[in-house]
């Protein structure tokens, strides 16, 4: 296991290098000039545009700009934001707490709703609850997160007045965004939980456990649910990256000052250093979560070994 983790961490370096390369190429393929965006109404003055491009280093060859960026990363420096005139790392760390709170709030809600509805749906297959649960999962998978966010804003903030429409003044303002993101997240978990449990429940060792006189609670907890967890954990790990993407849209709709909203605004402003730093942050989190999921496999299934 130790050697496997070391290999995955070394692979992380290659993944991050690929992320920086692809992000850098895509940013320079997209039409637009950061200097003109920053100058706004003065963008028609070519002298000012040329001067600002020189100050930002945008007049250098692309290969030089890329290697300067990589050199900065190796030194622990992601550069300075064009718009905020501050360190990219400090801006990410400043906004990270709000994103972490939203992400984990949505994760808790998604797991509670998704696992419980999936388990009940599998145990009571073809019942009214099963039909309702799978209908909910189908709608959740198909529904855009920003549309659900606006519906919940209209109902619970505008009509009922229970929450603020937008803004972030405390944990209370994270309830509605967390529910929004968590419900979307729970739909995939519910479907995977149901199908995984139904597959395991037909296995011979489950029938053997019942034949030996084990109670249904013991059969389900020790033989069914634990063996059904591996594909469920895989789904949770894979969906975590989508959870971060959904957090960006949710933060924008609810005006939460998180990393996702910062990244979207930076994309609109063509703030190259901020975009690269934000994408690297998401990539690092995604790869580390998947590494944690792989390590968790060995605990859930002792027959799995990483040689």
UniProtKB/TrEMBL annotation:
GO BP annotations listed: transmembrane transport
Transmembrane segments: 9-30, 102-123, 135-162, 174-193, 228-254, 274-300
Family the UniProt entry places it in: Belongs to the binding-protein-dependent transport system permease family.
Organism field: Candidatus Cryosericum terrychapinii
Topology of the protein relative to the lipid bilayer: Multi-pass membrane protein
Subcellular location: Cell membrane
Alphabetic keyword roster: Cell membrane, Membrane, Transmembrane, Transmembrane helix, Transport
Protein name: ABC transporter permease
UniProt-listed Pfam families: BPD_transp_1 (PF00528), BPD_transp_1_N (PF19300)
Every ABC transmembrane type-1 domain range: 96-297
Top-rank lineage group of the source organism: Bacteria
UniProt keyword annotation of Glycoprotein present: no
GO CC aspect terms: plasma membrane
Main location (coarse class): membrane
């Amino acid at each position: 296991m130790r050697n496997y983790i070391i290999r995955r961490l070394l692979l992380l370096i290659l993944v991050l290098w690929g992320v920086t390369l692809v992000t850098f190429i895509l940013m320079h393929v997209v039409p637009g000039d950061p200097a003109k965006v920053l100058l706004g109404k003065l963008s028609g003055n070519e002298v000012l545009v040329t001067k600002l491009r020189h100050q930002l280093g945008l007049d250098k060859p692309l290969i030089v700009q890329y290697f300067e960026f990589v050199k900065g990363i190796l030194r622990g420096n992601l550069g300075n934001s064009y718009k905020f005139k501050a360190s990219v790392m400090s801006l990410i760390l400043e906004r990270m707490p709000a994103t972490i709170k939203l992400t984990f709030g949505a994760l808790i809600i998604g797991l509670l709703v998704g696992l419980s509805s999936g388990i009940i749906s599998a145990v009571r297959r073809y019942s009214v609850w099963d039909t309702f649960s799978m209908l909910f999962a189908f709608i959740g998978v198909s529904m855009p997160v920003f549309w659900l966010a606006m519906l919940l804003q209209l109902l619970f903030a505008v009509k009922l007045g229970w929450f603020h429409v937008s803004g972030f003044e405390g944990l209370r303002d994270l309830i509605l965004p967390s529910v929004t993101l968590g419900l979307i997240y729970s739909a995939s978990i519910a479907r995977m939980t149901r199908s995984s449990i139904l597959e395991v429940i037909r296995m011979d060792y489950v029938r053997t456990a019942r034949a030996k006189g084990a109670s249904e609670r013991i059969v389900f907890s020790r033989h069914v649910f634990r063996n059904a967890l591996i594909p469920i954990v895989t789904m949770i790990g894979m969906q975590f990256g989508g959870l971060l993407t959904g957090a960006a849209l949710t933060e924008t709709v609810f005006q939460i000052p998180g990393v996702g909203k910062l990244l979207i605004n930076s994309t609109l402003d063509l703030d190259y250093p901020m975009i690269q730093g934000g994408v690297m942050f998401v990539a690092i989190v995604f790869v580390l979560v998947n590494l944690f999921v792989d390590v968790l496999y060995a605990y859930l299934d002792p027959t799995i070994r990483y040689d």
